[in-house]
Amino acid sequence: MSSRERILGRVRRALADVPGDDTPYEQAVPRGYLREHGERSTEETVELLAENLADYRALVHRTDAGGLAGTVAALLHRRGATSVVVPPGLDESWLAETDVRRVVDRAEQTPGELDRVDSVVTACAVAVAETGTIVLDGSPDQGRRRITLIPDHHICVVRVPGQVVSSVPQALERLDPVRPLTWISGPSATSDIELDRVEGVHGPRTLEVVLVTGLPSGTDGS
Amino acid sequence: MSGTFIGMPAFPQAARASVHDATLRGNLRHATHTIRGKREQAVAEVADWAELREAGKRIKDHVLRHLDRYLVQLEESVTAAGGVVHWAADAEEANRIVARLVKETGEREVVKVKSMATQEIGLNEALQAEGIRAYETDLAELIVQLGRDRPSHILVPAIHRNRGEIRDIFTREMGEWGRPAPEGLTDSPAELAEAARLHLREKFLRAKVGISGANFMVAETGTLVVVESEGNGRMCLTLPETLISVVGIEKTVPSWRDLEVFLQTLPRSSTAERMNPYTSMWTGTRDEDGPRAFHLVLLDNGRTDTLADEVGRQALRCIRCSACLNVCPVYERAGGHAYGSVYPGPIGAILSPQLRGTRSEIDASLPYASSLCGACYEVCPVAIDIPEVLVHLRERVVEGGPVIREGNKVVLRPAKGHAAERAAMRAARWALTRPGALRTAQRLASRTRRLRPRTLPGPGRAWSGTRDLPPVPPEPFRDWWQRTRGGKDEAK
Ligand code: SF4
């Protein structure tokens, strides 16, 4: 007997007390919880996102479609970045005002190559106001998961208000489980050395989120 | 279950050793109390906590009651998405499967993100016996591993090492394992963390095989979810060519939508965060993004035996948030090691004896490691009635009776000479009759509060995360109470 059969057999014997007409899933789970917490206008939801991002130590910037390229250029400059990874489907105009060397996200790239790049600029799939979370889904304007993991500086552009939802349930509704998803809520931190807080052992130690108005919220190229 | 600490003394003896360690006790108390307060805030932020808790309980109950069907569905979904599913009836089989899969890649080293399941089965030791080096990548685990040490505590695994020692360990050992520590490394935590970042990064960048657990598996879609803080999880899940995930069968949830419940309750219960820093979700393999091969090892190892117990099976609802540890007066005094298992605290007291049986002295004494105060039930985000299960297991220890072990019905004999009850008396005595010691520990935590961190390493890394914590109150609750009689003598 294979272990598969053995385990499934044990499960079935263990559940001998469960009647054949046990309550079906749809009725077994009460969904009385809220779809979102509190009532907010669209502006208030964006405001809450900004607050919660900052609360988790992301650096939040605001601009409009016309100012985006300038903002991105300024952030890269301030960081002293000499190279930046760019997902293949990122709107070129976002980087129009910087001459920092572009490194395009490619399948052949080794992690070692990415480790020598200073920054990364991406879009996102959705942002969750209540939790201060941005979610990446690997669309062409977000790239492979590793490009937002290895460089030490991540600039993430959120189109507001279109890409902002209030809550976790609303975010899941918008996401496609088939895509690889990364939920990011601020840079990481550790307190493993004498309980002293140190920010970001792995992953980008600096997360900058640019909230940009006046851009259509569809994900480019997907 | 091979995760038993060999020669582990039964709970009361082990606990007595821990309660005499003042440093450990002070740290533990501080840790549990600060996280407890912050958790209350995080929970109070959501008005529908009771409904989320009820939904979480019902989702898990439903999945457990139809686990055969959902496991088959999960297997189909994962396979359809490009993954390979393996079934492991016990620890030994799981270890054998993982060792074989690693060897088939031709590699001799793996990077690991700490998981309770792989600790439970003793995977690192099993791999070592096969000549495979497993690198733990949580910072605390790295300190422990480089120091050729055992974790001193599940909540703060490297707390027994001060910064000077860590510097010495890094300087001496890092070169043996990979990238050496930088010249002139000082003992500042930021520099030490940077050294660890660089040392581990070299391992991540060259790693060909990653090993993980998972917090959730969605039957409907075949999606796996890993919730973490440091980012080492993302490294292990994304950079290697082969990913092997070892996951207990009870981690299954029916549908994608169910995540909306647990992604709200888990971070708030666990690290008192609205959301933990990083959550990864993946479904099989993805062309040109992440591992090309994905293996899921579904682990039984006593879970189906637990499932066979109609009262005890609720323990399988556990989402490993650790909230019950932080409120438990017994855990706070005894420390994680006293439980003799990778699962400490109230959940360990009901899970370990069920996964492993109550034949060993430690497992027979575990159901007594509680004052039945019920605080664990109150905070549990899936409403596991831990006291109910404890009482049920005590009856089983004292009176014996039929249970399922490795799928077979066996009849337990009553505990001889009521050894367990004697153990219980001892356990209760130290935990509940030392108000003086309790007071001292509270004061200690208060006096040293300036030395305390604003953050806390989450319980047991896999149960873990970091965020700001509120300061310890300047005056312990107990002193305040004695001084004011609960505020009656003091305007609020
Ligand atoms: S039993 Fe404890 S660790 Fe498990 S879900 Fe409940 S509170 Fe969390």
Automatic annotation (TrEMBL), chain A:
InterPro entries: FTHF_cligase-like_sf, LUD_dom, NagB/RpiA_transferase-like. Pfam families: LUD_dom. It comes from the Bacteria. Residues 108-212 form the LUD domain. PANTHER family: LACTATE UTILIZATION PROTEIN C (PTHR43682:SF1). This is LUD domain-containing protein. It comes from Streptomyces composti.
From TrEMBL, chain B:
InterPro entries: 4Fe4S_Fe-S-bd (IPR017896), 4Fe4S_Fe_S_CS (IPR017900), FTHF_cligase-like_sf (IPR024185), Helical_ferredxn (IPR009051), LUD_dom (IPR003741), LutB/LldF (IPR004452), LutB_C (IPR024569), NagB/RpiA_transferase-like (IPR037171). PROSITE patterns: 4FE4S_FER_1 (PS00198), 4FE4S_FER_2 (PS51379). Keywords: 4Fe-4S, Electron transport, Iron, Iron-sulfur, Metal-binding, Repeat, Transport. Residues 358-389 form the 4Fe-4S ferredoxin-type domain. Residues 442-492 are annotated as: Disordered. Pfam families: Fer4_8 (PF13183), LUD_dom (PF02589), LutB_C (PF11870). Residues 476-492 have a biased composition (Basic and acidic residues). This is Iron-sulfur cluster-binding protein.
